[in-house]
Amino acid sequence: MLYSIHRPERTALIGVNVLDARGGDPVRDAVLVIEDGRIAEILARTHYTTRPGTEELQLQGMWVTPGLIDAHVHLAGGRAGIDDQELGVIAENRTVRAIRAVCEAQTLLKHGFTTVRDVSWNGLYLKRVFFEQKLPGPKVIACGPGLTRTGGHGDLFQFTPDYVRENGVFGLVADGEQEIVKAVRYLLREGADAIKIFLSGGDNWPHDRNGDIQYSARELAAAVEEAHRQTGTIVMCHAESREAIAMAVEAGVDTIEHGEDLDADLAKTMADAGTILVPTLQLIANWHRDFMPLDGDRRPPLRPDAFLYRDLYQGRDASFADDYSGSAVRSFQLALESGVKIALGSDTVYEPLTPFGEYSALEFRALVEAGMTVRQAITAATVVSSEAVGMSHVIGTVEVGKQADLLVVRADPTTSADVLADASNIHLIFCDGRLTVKDGKFEW
Ligand SMILES: [Zn+2]
Question: How far does the chain reach from its first CA to its final CA, in angstroms?
Fold first, then answer.
C-alpha cells in the first residue's frame, strides 16, 4: 500500500450514531469500521468483536456523517476589498496566489468540507498535490478556469487581453465552436474533471448583465458535447436569467450555477431532466446588499468604463437589493417544491469578502433559512453534491464500500443547522480513512 505510513489498516469508531445522509433514521450506538481507506462495516455495538491490529476509538454518543462537499469554490488565492475587486484578485504574482490556494483548500477541509469542486487554474494542480498526501487537503474536483467569451463574465475587461491571459485564474477565453472545442480538450488534457461555462452575465460590471446571454446555443452545445465525449465529465453552467437557465437545461448541462430566475414551468423541466441546481444562495441573496456600492456609497471605478452610460446600479437604492434577494429566495423555494435536485455550493471566491470555510458554512445555514429542513440541507451538502461533482459512486453517503471521508461530530447534526455550520462541533475528520483533522488541527 502506497500511503500507509500514518494510517492503520483498520480503525473502529465505537459507540457512534451513524447518519447515512439519505434522510433515513440514524443507526444508533454502532461501530463503524474503516479498512484500507473505505467503510468496511457498520454494525450494532453488541455485534462487534475486537480484532488484533485494529485501532479502536471510543466515541460514545458522537455522530458520524459523510464529509461535506462544496460544489462551487474558486481556489484562486487573490485578495481584494470591495473597492479593488477586479484589481486585487489578479494583481499579485501567480505563485503567491497558488500558495494561498493551498491554505484556502485546507481551511475548507477544517470546516468539514472533504471535497470541493473548484473553478480556477490552481485546482487542476492542487488536486494532484493533495492526492499524493504530502500535504493535507480536500479532494479537489477540478474544472480549471471556466469558458468565457471575450468580454464575458469570466474575462476581466479592465485589463488588456494579454494581461488577463497571463494572470487570470477563473476564466479561459474561447469564442466560436472551434475555440470552445479546443479549450475543452485542453482543459481535459490538463486533468479537468468537469467543465465550467459562463453562459449568462453576472452583474460584475456595467456591461456584464445577468439578463444577457453571452454564448450562442451552438457554442454552448459544442462545449457540452465535447465535455460529455469524455465519460464522467460534468458540465457546470453559470446561468442567472430564465432564458440562460432554459438554454442550459436544453443543452444538457449537469449543474446550473446560481439559477435564481426560475418559474414553475422551468423548475418542472429541470426536475424532469434531473439537472442539479447549485443555488449559491448566500451569495446571490445577499450580493447586492453586501458587496455592491449602491447610491450614497459609490466608489470611483478603476478607470472609466468603456460603456459610460450603462451603469447597472445607477438610480438603485437599498430596496433594489431587497427585491432582488426576495425573488432569488422565492426561485430557490420553487425549485425545492418542484423536486429539483439541489446541491451546496458557496461560490467562495476571495478574501476578505468571502472567507474560506466560513462562507461554505453560511451557505449551509442559508439553505435552511430559505426553507430546507436541516436533514434536507445535509442531503444537499453530501448526497446531491456528490452527484453534482460526479463522485456519487465514491463519496457522499456513509455506506459500506464508500471511501471513508467522514466527520465525527459532537452533537446531533439534524437538530439545527448550527451544529454543522460551527466547525468547533467537529471532533474528527477522516479523508480516505485517514484521520486528518482533530479538534480543528491537522493530525499529520
Ligand atoms: Zn463562482
Answer: 18
Whether the per-residue pLDDT at 290 is higher than 80: the answer is: no
Which DSSP category does 67 fall into? P
Q: Delimit the domains of the chain by residue range.
A: 10-66+396-442, 68-388
Fold of the domain spanning 68-388: TIM Barrel (3.20.20)
Ligand 1 mean position to 193 CA, how many Å? Answer: 16
- Please tell me the distance between residue 71's alpha carbon and the centre of ligand 1 in angstroms: 10
d(CA 371, ligand 1 centre) in Å:
23
> How close is the Cα of 129 to the center of ligand 1, in Å?
23
CA of 417 to the centre of ligand 1 (A): 23
C-alpha grid cell for residue 62?
458522537
> Residue 80's beta-bridge partner residues?
352
Residue 248: count other Cβ atoms within 10 Å of its Cβ: 28
Report the length, in residues, of the chain: 444
Distance 366 CA to ligand 1 centre (A): 17
Q: Which CATH class is domain 10-66+396-442?
A: mainly beta
Phi/psi of residue 386, each to 5°?
-65, -35
> What is the pLDDT at residue 286?
84
- Is the pLDDT at 334 greater than 90, yes or no? yes
